[in-house]
Amino acid sequence: MFYDTHAHLNAEQFKDNLEEIVKEAYASGVTYINVVGFNRETNFLAQEIAAKYDNLYPTAGLHPNDVNDFTEEDLVTLEEYVKKEVTVGIGECGLDYYWYKDNKDKQKAFFIAQIELARKYKKPLVIHVRDAFQDTYDIIETEMKKGAFTGVMHCFSGSPEMALRFLNLGLYISLGGPVTFKNAVAPKEVAKIVPLDKLLIETDCPYLAPHPHRGKQNKPSYLPLIAQSIAEIKGISVEEVAKHTTLNAKRLFLQQF
């Protein structure tokens, strides 16, 4: 069985065929799915969707790309979601300097606020980072000194060296569709060096569909393709990848040890 730790089933693209998408996932062996929220609307929908299906779990977060629209009231609302037992993670949150470079301070403030929630409620962070690896690392390292928390570097796109630095902080590394791309050197190198007990897998659907579906709409039923690529890179069976990544995800998100 597989655990898709990051799926946006709350995206507009799945509005008309969600039931079919979930059934396809189950039929493909994808038994567990995190429905990831990242703003007011998607946090609400993640809760609503996860309540309708077995083994679907909501997260709630405030994404850096939407930070210009957020106020302190959004943090209050977010905490209400985080308090709920059904909410398994905080995020998608983090830093993204690709689209916006003029609001770095606000991005950092909202990221730190969500780290504080992770520490307070002992729930893992789902961390997004793009073109901001050093700042993300520096914030996490500094905040860890104030009190422990855990989380995952979602759809990791950094270097193997940076992956090791996050691993040394105790975080998990999650890989998605790019690890299957023929020209994607860094994700393949990261897949080689991440220990099996710190590895997660995800689709990040509807984005980043794996080969041979690259450029099309992604969905959870494609997760085994990602696991297969990682298995080939590591020289192990796909069953071993499935076993370890599912156990890791259950440990991190469902507190099942």
Could you explain the architecture of this structure?
This protein has 257 residues and is of the alpha/beta class. The chain has helices spanning 18-27, 40-50, 72-83, 104-121, 133-144, 160-168, 185-193, 223-234, 238-253; strands at 2-7, 30-35, 56-60, 89-96, 125-130, 151-153, 172-175, 199-201. Strand 6 (151-153), helix 6 (160-168) and strand 7 form a beta-alpha-beta unit. Helix 4 packs parallel to helix 5 (133-144) and helix 8 (223-234) crosses helix 9. The mean pLDDT is 97.
CATH superfamily: Metal-dependent hydrolases
In the residues, how many domains can be counted? 1
Number of helices: 9
Q: What is the C-alpha radius of gyration, as a whole number of Å?
A: 17 Å
Give the total of beta strands. Answer: 8
User: What's the arrangement of strands in the largest beta sheet?
Assistant: 1-2-3-4-5-6-7-8
Q: Class, according to the CATH hierarchy?
A: Alpha Beta
Mean pLDDT: 97
Global morphology? globular
Question: Briefly, what is this?
Answer:
With 257 residues, the chain is α/β, with parallel strands linked by helices.
Furnish the topology, listing elements before pairings.
Elements: E1 2-7, H1 18-27, E2 30-35, H2 40-50, E3 56-60, H3 72-83, E4 89-96, H4 104-121, E5 125-130, H5 133-144, E6 151-153, H6 160-168, E7 172-175, H7 185-193, E8 199-201, H8 223-234, H9 238-253
Helix pairs in contact: 3-4, 4-5, 6-7, 8-9
